[in-house]
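Tutorial, part two.
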Amino acid sequence: MLFNGEYKLVTKDGNGPWVNKRDTVTINLNKHSEVNLEVVPYFTISNKQLTVSGSTMVASFTINQIVETASISRVMLLLSKTQFADDVNNIFRQDITENLSAGTVSFNADISGNADVPKAKALYARVGVLANGANQAIYSSVIRIK
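Running the prediction step on this input gives:
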C-alpha cells in the first residue's frame, strides 16, 4: 500500500537529547520521500576507547559541548550482550554524576561483581551522556569488545 499525498510531521515537546523545538513539517509523499529533521544536540561524543581488562571496564572519550548553556546530568558506561545497548538494555551500567564537564574524560568501572559479563558470548560497549533537562541521552556508537 502506498501512502501518497500531503502529511504533517509534528515533533513532540521535550523528546530527545537535543534542544527542544516543537515544530510541524509538511511532507509530500510520492512513492519515495526523504525527510531530514534538523536538531541541535546538547552534546556529542567522539574519540571513544572502550575496553574490558580483567574486572575493569575502561572508558575514555571526548564530550563535545554543542549548546553553550547545557550541563551534564550523568555519564553512563554500558555493557551489553547484544548491539542494543542503552540505559535500559544492558547487562552492566554505571552512572557517573559528579565532577562532569565537557572535554576529554576517562572512567574506570569495577565489573567484578557482575556474573553476566564473563559469561557473555559477545560483549558490546558504549557510553551515554545525559544533559540536564533532556529526557534521553546521546550515545556513542556501539563497539564489540568480545
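The chain is about 5% helix and 45% strand. In part three we will examine how such features are distributed along the chain.
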